[in-house]
Amino acid sequence: MLVTLQRIVEGVNKAPDFNMALNTMVGQVREALETDSCSVFIADNEQRQFVMAASDGLRTEDGSSIRVDFGEGIISLAAQREEPLNIADASQHPANKKLVDTNENIYRGLLAAPIIHRRKVLGIVVVHQSVARQFTREEEAFIVTLAAQLAVVIAHADAKGLLMSDHSPWIHSLRGLPGSPGVAIGEAYVSRPEARLDEVTPKRSDKPVHEIRKFRQAVARTRADLKELSRRMAGQVPDDTLAIFDVYQGMLDAASLGDAVENMIKEGWRAQTALKYVVEQFVSQFEALEDSYLKERATDVRDIGQRVLMHLQNRQRQRKLLPDSFILVADEVTASMLAELPQAHIAGIISLNGSSNSHAAIMARSMGIPAVLGIDDIDLHFFSDRQLAVDGYTGEVYIDPPPQVLSQFHQLAEEEQELKDIVSEHSHLPAETQDGQRVSLHLNLGLDVAHDYLQSLNIDGVGLYRSEIPFMMRDQLPTEDEQTEMYQEVLEQFPDRPVVMRTLDVGGDKPLPYFPLQEDNPFLGWRGIRLTLDHPEIFLIQIRAMLRASIGKSNLRILLPMITSTSEVDESSRLIKQAYFEVAEEQGCEVGVNLFQPQLGVMIEVPAAIYQLPAMASKVDFFSVGSNDLTQYLLAVDRNNRRVASLYDAYHPAVLASLDEIARRCEELGKPVSVCGELAGDPGGALLLVAMGYRQLSMNSYNVDRVRWILRNVRSSTLNVMLAKALQARNPEQIRSMIADKMESMGLGGFVRAGK
């Protein structure tokens, strides 16, 4: 039976046409089980019916499709119970409902198994026998296994739109991940890279000097391209977003890709081959990371590599005729791709790969362009010559939407623009509730920063500066001087405002390219402070660089990641003091005059830290909650694993209860506490956090003014009622519904759904 099952499933997967695949499958199942009929019904959730998609044996008199209403008949019973039904004589079963104008009356024995994908019933497999008999355990196991295998096939067919036809109205849209809020309508514009690394055939060369010269010329042309793209984007996006192109330039430096490629050329490889090998190595390292922000850097590395390859191959970028308003669709939308197209014409973005942390998503948010990311198993050509409607709030993409949907989207788009204008007009005001409760809004930064933009942005400082990227984009540790220069650039932008710099948070799930680690469970492994304390030479150099960068300034704050015990805090403090006095002596600084002892903070991201707060309070100056990792550890969910990602939810009652407890304990201990995870920039999440007592929230630049406006339109009493209801809720859905209803009642619904 196993071999037969494998053959049937393999045939379904390889079939060029989905309907043909199902029709072939039901015939093969009928033959394998030596039964009289096999049928597949697929759920039409809009019409609330199960529709027969294929059958060998069951038919209507006029050849039309058979439909069974939800809640009626044995088919619906199998779906409701979410388990197989093995019935000797279906005609005598109390749930049986005769299918009118069909030949169903000739059958007695019935075996029905639900087709379930990610807890959702997609359809039913039904096998009939003309004689009254119960199917054997082996036959039942066969059908249940087939249904489980078929679930993935149908889910993919659903995503690809293969179920859509003039007679099957249940599929109208695709669902991805929300990348940038907003709604948009437009014709699909499919973009593909001019050169692809995966198409390069490895070849050797006996002219290394010639190949190195070609590579350097290609890099020079790429640098010129990037400068032009950056110039073109200036004034259209905030300068901190524009700094993405500085990161791209940094990837081309000798310390990043340059030396590695040239060394491989010297070993006898052509420039194209060396570039392919080095870039793919970098891409693999980034894609293996669990940190979603750093993981997305793989797209940037691949993009810059393919731009260099284009010049190595002497290709010119093809200029295509663009529609007046279009939805940009690509396998991976990149920052450079966005910069090359006229911004006024880009209505929306669909990136088949990527997440909310990709540079494309960051740029889309800063440009105010709706974006949907991460649509599984769709080919680019599927979108060609299609009219699209994009909802960046829900991740919904409508394919060739009907007139009524288009009309609704046009109205929502107008309301969106009105709301943006209102938020922008109030960006200069303080973030405080209507009854005067003040909240400090800070930035999360992981890129270079630009002076002009930061001077115009109404923020209170940097709540989290990630120091990992400079370490990861090199083939060796950055020197103390290099680190000092990087940190100095950030500190100088905020001379009168605090800058919280997190010490190196790598290891385990974020290995350095030159510090490879192999662990069975990297999330629970050698990472963060665990790694740097085991390598004090790395930790001390970074701390010394931070201190040197802070000479003459008093705004440096140091944050320790992945802390689980007071002993880690004690050892870190000892090393920081050692570095402090070393720098003071070497630089001739006067302690406490032009070199200040930085405040020390601890990240609360491991649940154990919650119960160590009293013990750690006397050793540190502040706490910072990393809500992303805290959620992940509390719920034991890898949010980058699609099989369980739906379980990752910062609105889970346990997560909110933990955040509430942290806020109360820190208040009792007299220690300031902030939140620097994604929840802080989420409109509903920000309201709940302020209600809990958090007075410092750190987020990306896009959300700063949105959160400010929301806070200025609520009272503390309203927030307290919302929090009380949230803490009593039993599941995240109840909490989201409550927040949405409350924000609607306050006239703030446009921050959680499309429209104003």
TrEMBL record:
Q: What class of enzyme is it?
A: transferase
Give the reactions, separated by semicolons, that this protein catalyses.
L-histidyl-[protein] + phosphoenolpyruvate = N(pros)-phospho-L-histidyl-[protein] + pyruvate
Q: Name one GO biological process term.
A: phosphoenolpyruvate-dependent sugar phosphotransferase system
Look up the record and report any one GO term of the cellular component aspect. Answer: cytoplasm
- Keyword vocabulary terms for this entry: Cytoplasm, Kinase, Magnesium, Metal-binding, Phosphotransferase system, Sugar transport, Transferase, Transport
Do you know which InterPro entries this protein is assigned to?
GAF, GAF-like_dom_sf, PEP-util_enz_mobile_dom, PEP-utilizing_PTS_enzyme, PEP_util_C, PEP_util_CS, Phosphohistidine_dom_sf, PTS_EI-like
Could you tell me which SUPFAM superfamilies the record lists for this protein?
Enzyme I of the PEP:sugar phosphotransferase system HPr-binding (sub)domain, GAF domain-like, Phosphoenolpyruvate/pyruvate domain, Phosphohistidine domain
Q: Name one Pfam family in it.
A: PEP-utilizers_C
Gene Ontology molecular function: any one:
phosphoenolpyruvate-protein phosphotransferase activity
Q: Does the keyword Protease apply?
A: no
**PANTHER family linked:** PHOSPHOENOLPYRUVATE-DEPENDENT PHOSPHOTRANSFERASE SYSTEM, PHOSPHOENOLPYRUVATE-PROTEIN PHOSPHOTRANSFERASE
Query: What's the protein name?
Result: phosphoenolpyruvate--protein phosphotransferase
